[in-house]
Amino acid sequence: MPPSIITVQSVGTQQQLVINPPEQGLTLQGNLTIPGDKSISHRALMFGAIALGETRIQGLLLGEDPRSTAHCLRAMGAQISELNAQEVIIQGVGLGNLEEPSAVLDAGNSGTTVRLMLGLLASHASRFFVISGDASLRSRPMSRVVKPLTEMGAKIWGRQRNSLAPLAIQGESLKAITYHSPIASAQVKSCVLLAGLMAEGNTTVVEPALSRDHSERMLEAFGANITTDPEAKSITIEGKPTLKGQTIVVPGDISSAAFWLVAAIIVPDSELVIENVGINPTRTGILEALERMEADITIENKQIIAGEPVADLRVRSGQLKGAEIGGDLIPRLIDEIPIIAVAAIFAQGKTIIKDAAELRVKESDRIAVMASQLSKMGANITERPDGLEINGGGELKGTELEAYNDHRVAMSCAIAALKAKGKTTINGAEAVAISYPDFFDSLRQICETQEI
Ligand code: S3P
């Protein structure tokens, strides 16, 4: 029996992930399925809850974030069956019919839950809501959604001039607006479109760059009238549609696949096939970035399932080259930047990630945290105000790391540890449950089903 490469131990309420790769001979092989897309899972639950009739969701992500969304929706009268990946059944309440909850809505760690939900709640006239979450969520900026909603006539109060949760919302009849968002954020766009559902007339959002378009696709499938102008980067929704329950098939999350893509690239002689991955063009920035870095990835079995493109991704190890990543590509790979930083450590030459200041207000300050954790391992990585600069070609050594309550930091550090010399310990690794509850099992599966 070879020594275990992956161990997970409990330390109080936390979990410590210990990764001890062999000095040589580790290769990653096999096929992997990944959990459902987080963004699509949130939306399927929310839109199912406000539609009329029954919605069925297959492949829902069973992570903590969608659980927070389901929990809030149940507190407002939506009937949602027990969450499982086979099929979740929702009996929707119909547009405008969410009930006033008797307690504070708890969005946990989930920015998507609170920001999208605000758009829904603000339009529920004569009902009062309070929404909050964990310490990380209570420090994340909410003025980006409070501002357009207030323009629509919403009444919202919160800490620090209505910019931080807990937030209190007095539902009002809203008016349609055209909103020029200063940031390319799907959460802001979706919030305004959801508020527009209940406004009289057309609500338009114009973005500086295209962000993920799952809301538009799915709202249209539920019966909303949506028009998009990709040139102008604008999306318009007509108020007061009849939304009807649908069957949603959630594809695998490309943001979760990204960890295995990079793992297979950096661990020599590896080949992985990641099955059933959502490849919506507003999410495939990671494939473009890795292609620029000369990675060997092929897209196989491409098909459209329930309105979203899906494929298997075959990835083989190889030598990466440094690249510059910025501009309009950033919103299309925003959640993958921590793992791109790991890839860049093993690339030849310099990688610059810019235009990504948004990373500072995610579940953690991902610029500062990735720079500090990867530096501890010996990487040549420095912070920029809007990104990271990484000089590749170095070697990593195992050490003790912190996940800072951030699922993507925990998983990125774990992948870096596969290529480090010696043992790495990641404290707070339970954070992976936010978006990838089976992460440790998948990691074991690809590392330990082989002769070493
Ligand atoms: C999300 C949008 C992104 C992303 C987040 C999920 C969504 O945030 O980082 O993990 O589901 O709409 P922003 O829209 O704020 O960039």
Structural notes for this entry:
- One of its GO terms (biological process) is aromatic amino acid family biosynthetic process.
- With 452 residues, the chain is an alpha/beta fold.
- It has two domains: 3-36 and 251-446, UDP-n-acetylglucosamine1-carboxyvinyl-transferase, Chain; 38-249, UDP-n-acetylglucosamine1-carboxyvinyl-transferase, Chain (Alpha-beta prism), CATH 3.65.10.
- Helices cover 29% and strands 27% of the residues.
- It has helices at residues 38-50, 64-75, 111-121, 143-151, 159-162, 186-196, 214-222, 254-266, 285-292, 337-345, 366-376, 407-418, 439-448, and strands spanning 6-11, 14-19, 29-33, 52-58, 79-80, 88-93, 105-106, 128-132, 155-158, 164-170, 178-180, 202-206, 226-229, 234-238, 247-249, 271-278, 296-305, 308-316, 324-325, 350-353, 380-384, 387-391, 396-397, 400-402, 420-421, 424-427.
- Strands 1-2-26-24 form a four-stranded mixed sheet. Strands 3-16-18-17 form a four-stranded mixed sheet.
- The N and C termini lie close together (10 Å).
- The chain binds shikimate-3-phosphate (S3P).
